[in-house]
Protein: Methyltransferase domain-containing protein
Amino acid sequence: MVRSSMADTARQSALLNLKACTVDESSLRERGAERHVSKKRTLGESVNSQENDSAAEEERAGCWSRVGKFRSHILDVERERLEIQHEIWLISTQNKLFLAPLAAPGTILDFATGTGNWAIESARRFPNSRMFGCDTAPIQPKDVPANCTFCTTTNLEDSTTWSSSPQTFDLIHSRSMAPFFSSSPTFFESAFESLNPGGYLELQDHLVPVCSVDSSLQETDLDRWSQAFCSASRNLGISTDDSALSKPRMEAAGFVDVREVHFQWPVGTWAHGEINKQIGTLCARNLESGMQGLGREVLLQGAGLSASEVDGLIEGARSDLGNRKLHAYFSV
Ligand SMILES: C[S@@+](CC[C@H](N)C(=O)[O-])C[C@H]1O[C@@H](n2cnc3c(N)ncnc32)[C@H](O)[C@@H]1O
Structure:
């Protein structure tokens, strides 16, 4: 198991926050009255209003718009990276798409669905469920299972753009979104209002900077890159450790039984065990890809470095990824 074997090595128990929360039914009923007051756009309406002209695509490019104009070469790298990350998650959770104790949710929302890989796989595994995926970027494929619908809206944190009273969910899932919330409390309130009684909200995120189980990361290029990335992200309004604050924020929104499940993802093949090696190999590829795509753009725009300085930093960090003496991992 990833968790136990990594925990043996790593004394620090930080990992990605994976939270499954139940909704307080009485409180939801109270809020239900408010839900019917205003006319809210349904997901179907959002889909129909979607116009995929390229200017609009740029405007809707979500996290990419935070680092400047949407650039297709970044998106191509990101698509590949999100596929790798999807695979890492499945290995970590022993092939589960979510940990919330729901056998077969009737209606599911994948918030900030990205390329839609999670939503499509969920729709296939739960053919009787109705799956919706939302994102600010229209980057989802067209050929999807019949029970899967994607929509694009401009401000998805406000539930008025993705929900209406008849459109409530048994499960709202969101992965790798925490850094990009402009207001996660608003999202939690929206999610709370949009869940059916007894429904679950599950977030899956990993934290940056890269950690180490010992001092092996100190004074390395990988560490320098990781620190520079976090600081540049902050300068651009992206909080790479925002998910650490999710639990109290969820509770403030009315969620009960908020649970966190932690993993540690090794970077590279230094950790013992077949699963750690599989995750570590994928994590190194994920990081390498992220450094050259979105990560490079973040540094160019937020670190105050020249292009050659950024490329030098990335080159050094990339070569560290193959160094088995560096005991680096991501907190999940
Ligand atoms: C790192 S990707 C994760 C995608 C997907 N959840 C996955 O795990 O593969 C983050 C996604 O959040 C989207 N995003 C950023 N800000 C958003 C917002 N305010 N509302 C909805 N989606 C947003 C981006 O367009 C991007 O697709």
Observations:
- The CA atoms of residues 120 and 144 lie 7 Å apart.
- The first strand starts at residue 18 and ends at 23.
- Residues 1-61 have pLDDT under 50 and may be disordered.
